[in-house]
Amino acid sequence: MKIFGLPLWGVLVAFVVFYALGVFWYGMFFSDIWIAGHGYTEAELEGSSPMWMLLGFPQTFAQVIGLGFILKWRGWPDLQGAVTTAVVLGICFALPFAAYQLIYSVAHSLPLFFVDASHLFVGWVASAAIMTMMR
After folding, report:
1. pLDDT at 105
2. Structural domain spans, the chain
């Protein structure tokens, strides 16, 4: 079965893993750094609606689909080629996108930049590996 010409199960598993990685990344592993980097208070976090978290579903899904398209256009490289592709995309896209927060926010938080950029890198590498192994 295919979705957008990509292996359905590979896309779904990559999506779930990438999303779950984000839950642990921001919710457990680096939550203190992320909160401090933004300068949030506990009161602000408690007053925030969890409905915004639902937007993470289409955001993560779009990243997985986009990565799948690039892997497909490359002729579905082997596992090493897929990981290399994800790393190159991370250097060309994840770092510059994550740098917006570093450059233009008032806080200019280098730790926050590393948390955001590393999440994208690890998520893209894991997604590329999963989709390649499940194609």
Report:
1. 83
2. 2-133
